[in-house]
Write a structure and sequence with these properties.
single chain; 545 residues; 8-stranded mixed β-sheet; 18 helices
């Protein structure tokens, strides 16, 4: 008996087969969005749809042909199949778009957060859609063209495929251009090119030649309103995580998600605030930088001092307490305490993670300790998804039933929203407790205290079949960019800095953004420096002479 041999195939035909699979089955989400963008399926649009498919197929073939060498072809083609399958699952499951920011957000999250996105359904999907084709690629015997003739053949195939794609693009340009121009998000759906482009952009940024740190605000000093004051100041800045204004009852949400804050005397809630980004990796560095969203880029921000540095230059002690995945470089030159790691018997922690009240452990004693005027940043875990039900302790599940898994397809949208709303309810308690702590410190310890809260970005909860966050800002829905922001001051604080509360209340519905935070914190604390822009200082018009 003769042993059955594996099938034999030319390298060029194998590349074409993989290109066909990538252009079709791996990109169902892309084609669904594309068909919608061009107005649907009809007999008149069949040439456009067929031509567009041919363009994608030819481009994939041209791009994969350079990998058709012995010892390179199989690993490369299998890698592209696996990448395309995994990215297709995330796009379909959560409605996300894959760009450089999304790759950065994934790379900079912690393992516990990343683990919530990995489950058996992802593994089964990848095994079914990429595992079987990859097995075939691995087993097939490939005939590789050799020598100069082989190189010329590959170059000719790649050039021919690219030329044919360009010709089709020119022929269809008049019809394609409006759809592509109006729906730029399509480029973030086409896989695996979306992942390759996003990864390339992230690595180029990450590996770019470091530049010297640019100092700013080295001239910062405490202004005249500090003169003659014996009482110390403590300002707490709470950086929320994934909290969207749409689900804050303070901002008009029908559910009572802010029962404690709603009764907080003197709280000023700003209702029209926009985030700098749609992911922590962008928004946190941006909000603490002197750069506005329009001029922000990662490399400029990481190589320039920020708000916390300027406060330190002015002589304040600055401390960052973290229950998230770090400060994204913002706190590199100030005190840092990571409180996020769970440990046996540690208060406010489960076996998997710590809830945000861990940030308050030891804080009353710390702020009462004699020393410099103090600014403390509390970085919440907040409402980070997809497992919202893990973000709050037992007892905060007021809205139910809740989704208790990261596999959203197993939950109703109502259950997902219920779990998310419970995270906002817990944030309400966390902020109210922090304010109570500051109020008590002001009363008992001769301190002037204040609290500023804002979220880094929002979250999609199924609107337009979109979940989570991280959409490119140009296409991001309102739910991902409209964030809550609020301010509380002790009587002594507002009197010391001559801040007119009524003036601030009158500005509560003014259009604001993360751009205002840097300058408003300096203005609130009467820090004088050339880097302060009065036009972005929310307090500038609300200080009594």
């Amino acid at each position: 008996m003769h042993k059955l041999s594996s099938p034999r195939i030319s390298a060029n035909l194998l590349v074409f087969a993989v290109s066909l699979l990538l252009a079709s089955a791996a990109n169902i989400n892309f084609w669904s969005a594309f068909i919608h963008a061009v107005g649907g399926v009809s007999l008149a649009r069949l040439p456009l749809l067929a031509g567009s498919f041919a363009i994608v197929l030819l481009l994939f073939h041209a791009l994969l042909t350079p990998f058709s060498f012995r010892f390179v072809a199989k690993p490369a083609l299998i890698a592209f199949l696996l990448i395309a399958s995994a990215s297709a699952w995330f796009i379909n499951e959560y409605g996300i778009l894959i760009d450089r920011t999304m790759i950065q957000n994934m790379a900079e999250t912690d393992l516990r957060e990343a683990g919530e996105l990995l489950n058996w359904r992802l593994a089964a999907f990848v095994a079914l859609t990429a595992g079987l084709p990859s097995l075939l690629v691995a087993r097939v015997q490939v005939r590789f063209p050799s020598g100069a003739r082989g190189l010329a053949q590959r170059a000719g195939i790649a050039a021919g495929a690219l030329a044919a794609a360009v010709i089709l693009l020119v022929l269809l340009f008049k019809t394609l251009a409006p759809a592509v121009r109006e729906h730029r998000e399509l480029r973030y759906l086409l896989t695996p090119t979306n992942v390759v482009q996003a990864l390339n952009g992230y690595l180029r940024q990450r590996w770019s030649k470091p530049t010297p740190l640019t100092p700013i605000g080295r001239d910062a000093v405490k202004g005249s309103r500090w003169a003659g004051q014996a009482r110390r100041t403590v300002t707490v800045i709470v950086v929320g995580e994934t909290a969207r204004a749409a689900n804050f009852s303070l901002d008009g949400y029908v559910r009572p998600t802010n029962p404690l804050l709603a009764r907080e005397p003197g709280l000023i809630n700003f209702t029209r605030v926009r985030s700098c980004g749609t992911a922590t990796a962008v928004s946190v560095p941006c909000v603490f930088s002197a750069l506005t969203r329009e001029h922000y880029d990662d490399s400029s921000a990481v190589n320039q001092e920020g708000l916390l540095d300027v406060l330190a230059h002015a002589g304040l002690r600055v401390l960052w307490r973290d229950n998230n995945s770090g400060c994204k470089g913002v706190c590199a030159r100030v005190e840092f305490a990571d409180l996020s790691a769970p440990a046996p018997g540690k208060p406010h922690c489960s076996s998997d993670e710590c809830h945000d009240e861990v940030l308050l452990d030891g804080l009353p004693e710390l702020i009462r300790r004699p020393g410099k005027d103090l600014v403390v940043v509390l970085h919440q875990k907040g409402s980070h998804g997809p497992e919202y039900a893990k973000r709050y302790p037992v007892g905060f599940g007021r809205f139910g039933p809740v989704c208790e898994t990261s596999e959203f397809e197993r939950c109703t949208r109502a259950a997902i929203v219920n779990a998310y709303d419970n995270t906002i309810l817990y944030t309400d308690t966390f902020l109210a407790r922090t304010i109570d702590m500051l109020r008590a410190a002001a009363r008992d310890s001769d301190l002037d205290t204040s609290l500023l809260y804002f979220s880094d970005h929002g979250e999609s909860l199924g609107e337009g079949k979109l979940y989570l966050h991280g959409a490119p800002y140009l296409f991001a829905p309102d739910e991902q960019t409209h964030v809550p922001m609020m301010l509380w001051m002790s009587d002594g604080f507002s009197q010391r800095f001559r801040i007119d509360r009524a003036c601030l209340q009158a500005r509560r519905d003014q259009a604001l953004s993360h751009d205002n935070v840097f300058h408003s914190v300096l203005g609130m604390l009467n820090i004088e420096t050339a880097v302060l822009n009065p036009r972005l200082d929310l307090f500038h018009a609300c200080v009594r002479n």
